[in-house]
Fold:
Amino acid sequence: MRPDPERELALDPLLDDPGTRIVVCCGSGGVGKTTTAAALGLRAAERGRKVVVLTIDPARRLAQSMGIDRLDNTPRRVPGIDGSAGGELHAMMLDMKRTFDEIVEAHADPERAAAILANPFYQSLSAGFAGTQEYMAMEKLGQLRARDEWDLIVVDTPPSRSALDFLDAPERLGSFLDGRLIRLLTAPAKLGGRAGMKVLNVGMSVMTGTLGKLLGGSLLKDVQTFVAAMDTTLGGFRGRAEATYKLLQAPGTAFLVVAAPERDALREAAYFVERLAAERMPLAGLVLNRVHGSDAAHLSADRATAAAETLVAENSSSGRIVDHTSGKAAGNSPDTQSSSTLPAPDGPPDPGSPASPRSEVQTLITQAPEAQAPEAQDAETQDPTEVDRLTAGLLRLHAERMRMTAREQRTRDGFTALHPDVPVTEVPALAGDVHDLAGLRDIGARLAASRADSPGQADAPEREDEQAKTTTREEASAQQDAPAQT
Amino acid sequence: MVRLDDVSRLQVVSGKGGTGKTTVAAALSLALATGGKRTLLVEVEGRQGIAQLFGTQALPYEERKIAVAPGGGEVHALAIDPELALLDYLQMFYKLGSAGRALKKLGAIDFATTVAPGLRDVLLTGKACEAVRRKDKAGRFVYDHVVMDAPPTGRVTRFLNVNDEVAGLARVGPIHHQAQAVMGVLKSPQTQVHLVTLLEEMPVQETADGIAELRAADLPVGRVVVNMVRPVLLDGDGLELAGSVSHAEVARSLAAAGLGGARRGGAAERLVEPLLRQAEEYAERYTLERRQREVLAGVGLPLAELPLLTDGVDLAGLYGLAALLRNQGVS
Structure:
């Protein structure tokens, strides 16, 4: 069953559309969100747009590749991109404390600002409050948008424990700082609470007493001073949070939910899709990273495994393998074959080493001879035994790949069944991590490629039809080989 | 004086997001319970990951048995809710009674746990440490081991180093004392912090950074658990051969295995290229993983390895992982 082409997420039109002003990449941790954001930013810039990428917590080498390893909270132009289409790429890494400080500095007179910045409660809040990072990311987004220097802003979202934190946190921080309780607590500091609050005040003094005991009286005082100072200088935090929300709901904003084809990541993605719909935030689609495929998809896992067993069994019955293997493999009969699919008690080299119980198949594979027998080296052609062993390995590799592909497809189908109308783009898995612009460019190409072009996603060619299957990959690896243009 | 077991009684499991730390924590709690022991598996981030893993309903803020281990052991689980932990705590020290509920209704509890992130951490770690120290009437420890599914590597040092966290907030008072008591447990040999990683660059880098941070904070680091290790299907020799082998010979070998004709354009011959390309990708990963292994060898901690469960982690898989941890002397 091939995916409906209408449900494919086409990213190039989205990136090229001048109406697209903000792209938000969100999703749970560890799914390649930051890399996706950076790759989209680069692609959009090389297609002619003036882009700024706001990253939250990039891996060091990814940050270095974009020249933003200095954390100075200001967008920097990324060198080395192909500007022939007239685009530019800028990037910055969020410094949440610095962003918070800047808000204070921008809205309070210097004396008051200094008092706030020195307040211990403020310091704890700005560095550690559970939602501060999310809130400041949104604040920064608002600032960048207000400067109107870029025609596309690509935002990464914080590595929260759940993708939903990112939507909840600004509201939480806003309502916390603007909340009833904090107002009540700070009422005494604001000279004369209303008369009608007398009754409540009795309860309040009990409560502040308890909290004071618990937290130490000084903290409460710090909070009161802080809120009083903030309140008179800043507009309400809730108001700012609401403005951010409106910005996210506005046309021109596109949310991309990033996930990997794993159960947990896709469950998070499904929650998030539902949440965006509930908040009337514009979802562009799902980016499914690290998808595996195979160009030999017509050879099933079971058949590949059986063929590998045939090869090994043939060799062992003709005694060819036995000549070359160490003592352990001497009894390489079908019997030991099957028993070696259990973790062998005396398995790989050093049973005491942590590496020992690694895998079922490893036992079998590591029995490959350490050194080739002399006659094998003499032979002109490659020893058929060696080739058979290699072929058996290739077939097992393929079987593993096919099983993974099937599992990923099942997981994906589960998501699609729940959300059939969410467009999806799949990004083939890379063997390594990305640490230069060439790598990002490669990811960008994979992101934008339609599924039909992706290796292994198309139906395996039964005819002598080589072209469809590797175009993307070869292009990609050609780009990867090219040195970063600096 | 009670002699400490070889294995620390509080086992904290952290790791970068997506490395499977909840799975490892659960497998560890099973491994430690094997042979008639009782362990408590503690969740602190309110994600209900443990319930999902064991296929049970959402865990309440209450210790309950969720699994039996081989040899008569028991795994109990607890999802700590910071608000309820604070109420518990207030109850214990101030005998608040209904006033506690009133505080909750007013939002004071929410306020107190959000106003001071350190406070929440003290409550969470405090609850775990209380379980570590708890004894029954006969004076025996109620739990032989407590395993904590902790926040991710990037936040775990801050989370555990509650003393520093609350120092600026509560210089005196019960929270201050509580923090002191918690740090007493966390910095002692009773505790070990394990980091879960994958054989990929970013998680390995984060693990190395995390270890440095934990050490700088004087927190006892235990092991690195390399998770989701994929099977070695072709070793270095095989990969070298894959790079130089003649396609015709592989085709012949495939044909011999019953996968069609080896002639040009035959079914077997058409498989050769895709299969060799998969081997190339595999080789790239193999090299990368070996490099990451070298980095991990450099951090100077014992390693443990767990295989990738291709079909996802189910209960049977969890028991399998627990057995592997035992084999590697982790428990």
Q: What stands out?
A: Chain B touches chain A through 91 residues (CB under 8 Å). Confidence is low (pLDDT under 50) at residues 1-5 of chain B. The two ends of chain B are 23 Å apart (CA to CA). Residues 126 and 181 of chain B are 8 Å apart (CA to CA).
